[in-house]
Every structure is written in structure tokens, then in C-alpha cells.
């Protein structure tokens, strides 16, 4: 909409604003209801695999690509930061809606978020220093 210089006003804007305002809290509430802090042995491999891929391998690949293409500055920091963030809470909602293993997804989101509290500062600190 920015490139075409078209604006959305009136009731359409208000409706979209209300929907957008409610989406994040509802998503967080549904993920919060499904939090799993216990480590179930049947989910151990899935959790470890997903967390390692998302929080270790993806930032490593991003780091290598940034060095390969000689990308630095703000763009590189943003790309690296986006590769470090844990799995989105919407994955839990989608797994419930589509009949997936929502318990495993809740565990992956929970443990990925907890581990990312340590991994994000370490990776970003390494990049900035």
C-alpha cells in the first residue's frame, strides 16, 4: 500500500485494526494454555531436533551467508536476529486446528522460547563484537 500511495480509512481501517489488536493476545493465551514444561520422553527427540535446527543451525547458516555475500550493518543484524528467534506461537494454533500433535508443538515452543533467552544474546553478542 505504501508504494501505490493508497490509504485505508474509515470503517475498513477500524475493523482491520480491531482484528489485529486481538490476534496477538489470543495467540499468546492459547499458547499459554498449552505450555508444557515437563520433558516427555516421547517428545524429547522432536524437541531437541527442532530447537537445534531453529536456534543453532539456522543462525549458523545465516551467519555463513552473511559472510559469503559480505553483508554487514543493520541489514545483517536484522537477518541474524530473525534467524535466532524461536518458533512462533501460531504453530501451536495451526497444529490444533489441522489435527497435528499440538502437545509436541507446545513443548517445542515452550522449550525453544526458554532456550532462546540464552541463545539470542549469545549469538547477537558474538555478531556485534
From TrEMBL:
Residues in a coiled coil are: none
InterPro entries in the cross-refs: Mem_transp_PIN-like, Na+/solute_symporter_sf
Q: Which UniProt keywords apply?
A: Cell membrane, Membrane, Transmembrane, Transmembrane helix, Transport
Membrane-topology annotation of the record: Multi-pass membrane protein
The organism that produces this protein has a lineage beginning with:
Bacteria, Pseudomonadati, Pseudomonadota, Gammaproteobacteria, Enterobacterales
Question: According to its UniProt record, which protein family does this protein belong to?
Answer: Belongs to the auxin efflux carrier (TC 2.A.69) family.
Q: What is this protein called?
A: AEC family transporter
Q: What is the source species?
A: Thorsellia kenyensis
TM ranges are 15-37, 44-69, 75-94, 106-128
Secretion signal: which residues?
Answer: none
